[in-house]
Amino acid sequence: AAAPPKRYCITLLPGDGIGPEVISVAKNVLKLAGSLEGIEFSFQEMPMGGAAFDLTGSPLPEETLLAAQKADAVLLGAIGGYKWDKNEKHLKPETGLLQLREGLKVFANLRPATVLPQLVDSSTLKKDVAEGVDLMVVRELTGGIYFGKPRGFGTNEKGDEMGFNTEVYATYEIDRIARVAFEIARKRRGQLCSVDKANVLEASMLWRKRVTAIAADYPDVELSHMYVDNAAMQLVRYPKQFDTIVTNNIFGDILSDEASMITGSIGMLPSASLGESGPGLFEPIHGSAPDIAGQDKANPLATILSAAMLLKYGLGEANAAKRIENAVLDTLNKGFRTGDIYSAGNKLVGCKEMGEEVLKSVDSPV
Ligand code: ATP
Ligand code: MG
Fold it and tell me: Transmembrane ranges (predicted)?
């Protein structure tokens, strides 16, 4: 007899703008890829962001956070929009997202940047530099200068106004992000580049010392170190040299945005945020794109690929993840493109039709 299906509970947070459109498509893809691998999902859709603020007065209602914490994984669309830009800080959709990350204790942010052969022309780099790029930035998400104390405004001896922030990392924070990165590098091409500013910053000196110490547990991974200024340069000069990059919160913020532009297509890029245990948070890197919301123009592939990351990194279901990744490649090979990645000769489709094409490929792989 066939094994009973594995069951997972997924909390869906469609959010604002194009969020509901791309989540609805990604949900169907996730469902089908799962069922072909003996996986049964139950989906629970909860309000989040501006939509939740309109409904409940809070961008992250208590019930939404509780549902997310109880789930096996969380798939988020996008949040925010002009409508809520004037909200007080604690009622902004973006604050809800920060609270969600905090509530899920996700400290590792994974952002792959892959130049797909079908889309090499949308890269900002020359074709021969862009071709074949396949890297992953692992960014520490809950420590460093964005959270360090003391912080604030003050006045110096001369009466000049000052603003100040503090870069702080403790051993446990470095060790746990390093372990996540080594595990990922191990499953990729076995190369990890740790990016810091250890020639200047004490927090970086400790970072380099701890990453080097943790490397002893991963003899199969080749560790290198790079200063952040050089890394920023190398990323545009010769990005193919990178497999997995691990870095702190602020450097990762900057380098992952830089890396995303190498691929040239914001509508294609997924992300994952993982904690020690408990559900991971998976979301496209793009925003709510209010300019195209409700017009069936959004590219759903970033969210579909986030669903693949959910399977791979969130649930350990690599086969189902591979099905989705392959289906996306198939669909691109057949020439289907949303507006953001369209070039002459392709077949222009909307969000829903793109989703239907991916579903066909999940169902009958070539
Ligand atoms: P946020 O502050 O929420 O991150 P943003 O201002 O950075 O938002 P996005 O919402 O990501 O910007 O949109 C930037 C541009 O990219 C917009 O013109 C938008 O239409 C386009 N865009 C973003 N995501 C997609 C997508 N999935 N498909 C097509 N176009 C997109
Ligand atoms: Mg943005």
Answer: none
